[in-house]
Design goal:
Layout (H helix, E strand, L loop, with lengths): L12 H10 L4 E4 L8 H9 L4 E3 L3 E2 H6 L1 H7 L11 E6 L3 H11 L5 E6 L4 H5 L10 H17 L18 E7 L4 H12 L11 E5 L13 H11 L5 E4 L24 E2 L1 H6 L21 E4 L1 H5 L12 H13 L4 H11 L14 H7 L5 H12 L5 E2 L4
Helix pairs in contact: 2-12, 5-7, 7-8, 8-9
């Protein structure tokens, strides 16, 4: 960890929601991804329009007890872009979450409790999606965290204080849904119910509208999203996590979404010539489901493949790869992780545009790079063979 964020560097997440709404758009966020949501990637996403970034999930218990965990799990920048960052924790004890949140508060915009990870190891430890069965425990954790931050001088109410500008830190949770949506309604109602000292325990909510058992290959449950945003969207800002593959292909409409036909897109005529079997852009059909009370989007796999997703690109441009490598030079990552990021960016993305910066054969050769010098030389050689442009008006 590094220096405390200055007031000039800090914007409270709730203000970011307000800014996006005033600009008549959804808030754009980057999901917490194990191994991948490190500083260099967060910086790259932020430089391409991401408003708010998440760290990978950090185990609160280990973070509290281990200096190595604190140094390796949470890194911020003291030079160069410092994206507004939410630190996500995995926890099942109120005191552990409160203490870990206290440690990161000087360096982050807020903290988030993971109630959505479906992985078996997490659920076996009563972490992640297993917490969806323990709403009272979740409430106890966020209330304890809020109280700890208040004692430390980071109360959310201070976001607008003239005496302590920028001192407030947000508390949020990321959830999945139950098969019986009534249980999810009860869960969220518990998290939004005021206490004697709190108007509401959480500041905003991220919903992944799949159950713990639903694979990612199954589309998100739009009925669940519509129900939950309709019921709670006026009480708290809500982010959608899941199936955010491209701004032009979201499965719902919203007053805060641009007309898909007006969105800028990535084009690569030379790439199309080199890869004639790439999928053509599908005919855009206006979604029949409207989600008017949704406040923002959270992308995971699609943004890993295309960090420029929110900047209007529907496939990754070369300049995003270059930006990422420049950020890695300042905020180093293990080489194998850097290589994996570049591999994702040079492969077909998750959206309807399946053009790739490198062919399958070229990506196979890419994986033979043994160090950063090999990687940079390889990309410099290949970049000249693929043209990258953006549509006029960008």
């Amino acid at each position: 960890m590094a220096e405390v964020l200055s007031d000039q560097e800090y914007i409270h997440p709730l203000k970011l929601f307000d800014i996006a709404k005033n600009e008549k758009r959804l808030l754009y966020t980057s999901a917490p991804m194990v191994r991948y949501s490190k500083l260099a990637f967060r910086q790259t996403a932020h430089q391409y329009g991401t408003d708010l970034c998440w760290t990978p999930m950090i185990l609160a218990k280990e973070f509290n007890r281990n200096n190595f965990a604190r140094d390796s799990d949470f890194t911020i920048s003291t030079k160069g872009p410092q994206p507004p960052t939410i630190v996500q924790f995995g926890a099942n004890v109120p005191q552990e979450l409160a203490r870990a949140s206290s440690l990161v508060a000087p360096f982050a915009s807020g903290v988030d409790l993971n109630c959505g990870c479906p992985q078996s190891w997490a659920c076996a430890s009563t972490l992640g999606a297993a917490l969806m069965e323990k709403r009272e425990l979740v409430r106890d954790m966020v209330v304890a965290t809020r109280e700890q931050l208040r004692q430390d001088g980071w109360d959310v109410s201070l976001q607008d204080s003239a005496d302590s500008p920028g001192r407030g830190r947000s508390v949020s949770i990321k959830i999945r849904v139950h098969k019986d949506l009534r249980r999810t309604v009860d869960f969220v109602t518990t998290l939004l119910s005021p206490t004697a000292s709190l108007a509401r325990p959480i500041d905003f909510l991220t919903i992944h509208p799949r159950t713990r058992q639903t694979p990612s290959s199954v589309p998100i449950n739009l009925e669940a999203l519509e129900l939950l945003t309709t019921k709670f969207g006026d009480q708290v800002p809500i982010l959608l996590s899941g199936d955010v593959f491209a701004l032009s292909s979201l499965p719902f409409s919203s007053p805060l979404l641009s007309d898909p036909a007006s969105l800028p897109t990535f084009t690569s005529s030379e790439a199309e010539a080199q890869h004639p079997h790439a999928h053509a852009h599908p005919q855009m059909v206006k979604p029949s489901v409207s989600i008017p009370k949704l406040s923002g989007l959270m992308s995971a796999r699609a943004q890993l493949a295309n960090p420029a997703l929110y900047a209007g690109y529907d496939a990754c441009p070369w300049e995003a790869v270059e930006t990422f490598l420049n950020n890695v030079a300042r905020a180093p990552l293990p080489f194998k992780l850097t290589l994996h990021h570049v591999m994702e960016m040079c492969s077909p993305g998750m959206g309807p545009n399946k053009n790739a910066l490198l062919s399958k054969q070229e990506r196979s050769a890419l994986m033979q790079c043994g160090n950063m010098l090999d990687l940079i030389d390889f990309l410099d050689e290949k970049k000249g063979g693929v043209g990258v442009t953006r549509r006029e008006g960008n």
